[in-house]
């Protein structure tokens, strides 16, 4: 191929959909005498934002011999139609990929890229198996649940913020019949709410009465209300493109996200499913997974360059945690192999993970790791594990000291995570939080040797509650020799959905229920002299909606009930974690 010396930008080219709706894209055209492959991102976040995203370096990528299409999704940016999250992305994604492949400047090979929603819509499009699609790189996206409804629990703060972000983008894009002055006023109003009132809006009961949900004038579907109203409606979610259909994807995929991304479990599951397919071993070997010490909102992982470390609150990772250029180079090798057909390109090991604690990158051949030793770590106490000063114990042996621990959860006094939310990159010493009387704290003795856990953390608890519905949260904590405690992952379980997310089954107060769930994946070395700790409580607010401990539908309840919670830990009811321990 001749060297590319010029890239032309064509703004808002029109791409017709099968129903006649026109979507618009910016086309970065490498001037070349021969057709070239194309890379597409489809986004509700305004396509113009991709010109400055360093990890994708779209201008540089065009000079490397790829047509770049930056597309506004239906109803977003300059595209026509109504924006309904996920609902149209299967058909629109297919139509866009095929339209691009048929243009005279394209050689018929198309790839996709993007993170978060931009990753989820790639899976939706790929599940329809467009003939021209040759590779996808869906970052920060799950395959089986909506990002804002995790284990049946609403990510309240994130969902509201995302809704407000779409309102803001609609205003910026010129949606709505406003004068310039009215548009500016609307924009200032919504940005004020996003910046200063997001947490306050979460406190409203019933929470569908929040002021931001009454924002008028912008022609944006009130999808937040719809999500809540249909939280366990299987047919509704099927119409909305959920689940995404990852099992139908038949092209090489590059998955990437951060350990602190609430999408981490979904990304790891996506890779695990596709890489273990036996019907096409060559395709199974083509998939890639990169997991680093990053949060969701830094797009691909890290917004700093490779010469900078990553700092989240009080937690600091060294310079090698920055991965901007490395990730970009990995993308290019992946696309060169599968879009340009360069079989000499080495796309690296199937799995690349950042092992926290050791703070180093490591290549692996599979996920989960074949050498994993799944090891139970049992809860025990001398009868009162409440607070950091209680007597909760984590032991490698079956519990033998007492039968149970108890606490009361009051929805009107939830555990506040606004200043210590790991999904937002706000890491703080947990000891102040662990002073709450509605939190159980269990710790090991100081470790006699390093313990590496890499893989999916699971929990099995035996619980009782005085309520008909309630939540349980678990946090995994690394305790330093000086007592400083940092949380590295958390997970939630809503009791009404213990038998599945589309049907509510309420509890009989006082009955014993076993609950088991996959909390999240991680790679962390607990160092010699450190202690492993877990926290158990019933709220993590305002990131997650408060369970009011009643049978009222999500979003409509305003009456609360205090729940008396019991965690059993006996040889008959041995509540425990299951750690994926890696021999060292």
Give the structure's gist in a few sentences:
This protein is α+β, with helices and mostly antiparallel strands and 584 residues long. The chain has 10 helices and 25 strands. It has helices at 58-63, 89-101, 117-126, 156-172, 180-202, 223-229, 234-239, 264-275, 281-286, 324-338; strands at residues 7-16, 22-30, 36-43, 67-72, 106-115, 133-139, 149-150, 153-154, 254-258, 288-292, 310-312, 315-317, 351-355, 360-364, 373-380, 393-395, 404-409, 440-443, 451-465, 471-479, 485-494, 513-526, 531-537, 563-568, 576-582.
Give a verbal description of the structure:
Helix 2 packs across helix 3 and helix 4 packs antiparallel against helix 5. This protein is α+β, with helices and mostly antiparallel strands. About 1% of the residues have low confidence. Strands 15, 16, 17, 19, 22, 24 and 25 form a seven-stranded antiparallel β-sheet that branches. It has ten helices and 25 strands. The longest helix is centred in the first third of the chain and has 23 residues. It is globular, with a radius of gyration of 24 Å.
Secondary-structure-derived class: alpha+beta
The residue fraction in helices comes out at: 10-25%
What is the 3D form?
A: globular
Distance between the termini: 48 Å
Q: For the CA atoms, what is the radius of gyration?
A: 24 Å
User: Can you tell me the residue ranges where pLDDT is under 50 for at least 5 consecutive residues?
Assistant: 299-306
Number of helices in the DSSP assignment = 10
Largest sheet: 7 strands, antiparallel
| Beta-strand content | 25-35%
Please count the beta strands (DSSP E, at least 2 residues each).
25
**How confident overall, as mean pLDDT?**
93
